[in-house]
Write a structure and sequence with these properties.
238 residues, mainly alpha, 76% helix, 0% strand
Length: 238
């Protein structure tokens, strides 16, 4: 069962790895062009695994303080706490806490998305499988970008930078077609995000806090108006 969950996680993680490779490729080019050595850029990606956090901190690295970098990381990545709380209820109860703590390192928006989309309880080995392809994808993309340097033209860099949005669409569209509540959550999230983007006062809210507020608001409304019935522990292995 564990092996099957692991294999399924690897299979579902392949599209994520491909998207990560494209996005981190750009980060690798930026980091090396800005003065970092290739191994330093690769180490950052291997130990952080956060696209928004790495790109934001790289901007501050060129002209900000350590305090600003720390606060930026806290705000941007605070949403992973919410994802961890959610997955802690999604994982199978009989699996040890240590295994779950290890899986917490690999929680990203995309890995959380595919894990939360699984029916019933999820084995922690499903996340391990996804991590085993997603983390190398992100790290190797940084390596390839760092080696390539500034060889690619600007229009190719622009194309690579939007690859992750296509990956997000691939995650949310299939379940939205099958479930009206999921579709409602997606539409509501887009609406709230748009309000933050066009309202002068709300524009000042950082992207990290905007994601947290949107998640709490939309998820809370969805839980109140569209509660899910408990399906039991043994509904689905992975």
């Amino acid at each position: 069962m564990k092996r099957e969950s692991f294999r399924k996680g690897m299979k579902d993680g392949v599209p994520i790895a491909l998207g990560y490779f494209a996005v981190s490729f750009t980060f690798g080019m930026m980091a090396v062009a800005g003065g970092l050595r290739i191994w330093q850029a690769v180490l950052i990606s291997l130990t952080n695994l956060t696209s928004a956090g790495q790109f934001a901190d790289w901007t501050l690295f060129c002209g900000g303080s350590m305090w600003e970098m720390a606060m930026t990381q806290l705000i941007i990545n605070l949403r992973y706490c919410l994802m961890s709380f959610s997955l802690s209820q999604k994982f199978r109860r009989e699996e040890s806490g240590i295994l779950k703590y290890i899986a917490a390192f690999g929680i990203t928006d995309e890995i959380f998305g595919i894990s939360a989309a699984q029916e019933g309880k999820v084995s922690v080995f499903y996340n391990y499988g996804a991590m085993c392809v997603a983390i190398p994808g992100w790290t190797l993309g940084t390596l390839a970008g760092g080696i390539s340097g500034s060889l690619l033209p600007d229009f190719m860099l622009s194309a690579l930078s939007v690859a992750i949005y296509g990956m997000f669409l691939a995650i949310i569209i299939p379940p939205s077609k099958k479930s009206r509540p999921v579709l409602g959550v997606v539409v509501a999230s887009m609406a709230v995000s748009t309000v933050f983007a066009v309202t002068p006062v709300l524009k000042q809210v950082s992207s990290g806090f905007m994601i947290i507020i949107t998640t709490l608001l939309v998820a809370g409304l969805a839980a109140y108006f569209c509660p899910l019935e408990e399906k039991g522990e043994a509904v689905h292995e992975s």
